[in-house]
Design goal:
The protein is mostly beta strands and 161 residues long. It has a domain at 92-151. The protein is 0% helix and 31% strand. The chain contains no helices and 11 strands. It has strands at 32-33, 38-41, 47-49, 58-63, 68-69, 88-89, 91-97, 112-117, 120-122, 132-140, 146-151. The chain has a 5-stranded mixed β-barrel. It has a 4-stranded antiparallel β-sheet with strand order 3-2-4-6, with no helix packed on it. Strand 2 (38-41) and strand 3 form a beta hairpin. The protein is globular.
């Protein structure tokens, strides 16, 4: 189910480089990416949301704070709803796990995980249809935790960039 509003993020570990500068690529027309959601770029280099990820997408991290929306047309310099430059938070964050064959377990820690949707990652590449999200770092399902993923990864190896 696609997001309809921003979501809260919980960072895992130390912040390090909390955000990258505004992503220099364009954002395709009629695209909305919500704050806290997984941020992808498609094979053309356009920012897209992760509601329908494909294997050729690249994962950058999580959208910082505010929704970005290009309903007015293609944006060469995306801004959030407050008019600030679009930013991507990099590092490790807690997200949800897929279910069934995509359920993450301790055996997946240290392994690449794959984008299922804007807030969920899974253990499988969905038959080569999903992009690498990053590497599973930790599982803590207590006190609002979840599945800590180091986002922003090499498409081919899943190793952090």
């Amino acid at each position: 189910m696609a997001l309809t509003s921003d979501v809260q993020t919980v960072r895992y570990g130390t912040p390090g480089n909390a955000s990258q500068p505004a992503y220099p690529g364009p954002m395709a027309a009629s695209t909305t990416v919500y704050g806290g959601a997984i941020c992808l770029t498609n094979s053309s280099g356009n920012i897209k949301n992760a509601s329908s990820p494909t294997s050729t997408d690249l994962c950058w991290g999580l959208v910082h704070a505010q929704t970005i929306n290009s309903s007015a047309g293609v944006w060469n310099t995306p801004l959030d709803t407050l008019g600030n430059p679009f930013q991507v938070d990099t590092g490790s964050f807690y997200v949800s796990s897929g279910t069934g064959a995509d359920q993450l377990t301790q055996a997946n820690v240290g392994q690449p995980v794959y984008v299922i949707n804007e807030t969920t990652v899974g253990a499988t590449n969905g038959g080569l249809t999903r992009p690498v999200a990053g590497v599973l770092m930790n599982i803590d399902t207590t006190q609002g935790g979840g599945y800590a993923v180091q986002f922003g990864s090499s498409k081919s190896t899943g190793a952090p960039q």
